[in-house]
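Worked problem 6 (solution included).
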Amino acid sequence: MNILVIDWLIFAEKLVLIAVIIFSSLGVALYTTFAERKVAAILQDRPGPNRAGPFGLLQPLADGVKLFTKEEIIPNAANKFLFILGPGLAMTAALMTCAVVPWGNKLELFGRTIALQIADINIGILYVFAVVSMGVYGIMIGGWASNNKFSLMAALRGASQAISYELAMGMSLISLLFLTGSLSLKTIVEQQINNSHFWNIIYQPVGFIIFFICALAECNRTPFDLPEAENELNFGYHQEYSSMKLGFYLFSEYINMFISSAIMATMFFGGYDMPFVDESKFDPNIAAIIGIVALMVKVVIFIFVFMWIRWTIPRFRYDQLMDLGWKKLLPLALANMLITAFFILLQSNPIKF
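Solution. The predicted structure is:
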């Protein structure tokens, strides 16, 4: 087959895969808002949303229509260009992180093998960190451009929080990289699927706990939702926003929660690996579907834990938030990294008596 035709086929496959993953992420974010309200209702012994459609299942669509049809309000004193850029940047950064996540193994369709990953780059984790860091600019720009003192204070909190917890998160990942020897998420999953290798949570339980706590802070989830502390700062950094600009900020938070859950499942819980099931005995397409379902189940469990924590644990004070990041998580991550390095060195060069 002509090389040019093959290139166009690969390009078309990637476009379809990008569209499927982006629309799936948006759909998950939409219905995660519904799940959040239902989980809160269960924990608080009340019915939750149940009017729009059967069992309230159309409530997210009703909320979406409401946001689309609300009046667009831009404050007179706001920087209009940056005011519009902020939520767009937050949403774009949230969607870009899904590019390196391996959502499954491979599908065989029409005589072609299609990888269920947009880009398998050898610096996958660094790419995730870079894009997540860019999302902080969406918060900062939106808070500053609103020309509101509460929004600006909330944006400063969000930036300080991100800096504080990304350091500990990076340290926890360095410990994991000592074991894997690769930054590629696909390679990390394949190592865990190997029969002689267990899931990384067995080797790095402390690293996972640190990463999970930092993920809560990165997603601005309770008890680290200081940038949105309504009892202190009214409505946080998006106080002046309305209509779909506000919707972009809210949806980007839920997409970040979804992608964070997928990354934690990928790095520490085998990704698309189904425990106690040998996928090699199945048809490749059936095995790929089993892998996708396995990954989604792990993601749903993590999302439920995110929600459970929100409606159970009270919010930290700001000084407690900073103390936890700098004085506890960072030293713990550093100690975990040094201990991991020591054991790897000991294994490669055993001491002879």
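Discussion: The longest helix spans residues 3-43.
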